[in-house]
Amino acid sequence: MTSEQLELLKYPIGKLYFPECRPENYVQDWIGDIAGCPEGLQNLVKNLEDDQLDTTYRPGGWTIRQLVHHMADSHSHAYIRFKWALTEDNPLIKAYDEKAYAALFDSKEAPVSLSLDYLKALHARWVFLLEGMQQNDFYRTFRHPESKKEVRLLNCLAMYSWHCRHHCAHIEHLMKRRDWI
Q1: Looking at the Swiss-Prot or TrEMBL record, what is one Pfam family this protein matches (predicted)?
Q2: pLDDT surpasses 90 at 62
């Protein structure tokens, strides 16, 4: 496999792009991606058998099952980061080791229905919060302990909009390559 082919498998929709010019114009689209993610993910994986769920989306990558559970883990952290940034002044957030999470027993073996149900409830609550935020709220920040950077909630929203589409594309592209759809 060439490095270009591997790069396409890693980033099927491309790397995260954040518009520098008037990013607030994208907020409703990004919220829409967050809102639609659980149903889109559910529709992708609902007919997959265990052996399919335990197939990696690329060489050296996670299985579909791990991706679904990773999305639940990651999006939980994102939601809490929003709450912290909205209630504290530039809080220092807690980082987590996503690879270690994905290697845990539950990420490798739990039924995906657990995370799908969780994502449905989590995203409904998250979208309710997002839709109630004022424009200036999206400019509130948190600090990341590893990068030492301040992250605006606007940027975090863009990242998680991309994150939803990114991992769903991993699954969809694998399913197409394997003729599962």
Answers
A1: DinB_2
A2: yes
18: Cβ–Cβ under 8 A, 6 or more apart, which residues?
155, 158, 159
- What are the residues facing 152 on neighbouring strands? 141
Q: What is the mean pLDDT of residues 156-162?
A: 97
From the CA atom positions of the chain, what is the Rg in Å? 17
Q: 56: which strand partners?
A: 63
CA distance 26 to 15: 17
Calpha distance 167→40 (Å, rounded):
11
Phi and psi dihedrals of 92, rounded to 5? -85, 120
- Give the span between the Cα atoms of 104 and 76, in whole angstroms: 17
Residue 77's alpha-carbon distances to 10, 67, 179, in angstroms, are: 22, 15, 34
The answer to whether the pTM exceeds 0.85 is yes
Look up residue 92 and give its amino acid: L
**Residue 15 pLDDT > 90, yes or no?**
yes
pLDDT exceeds 90 at position 23? no
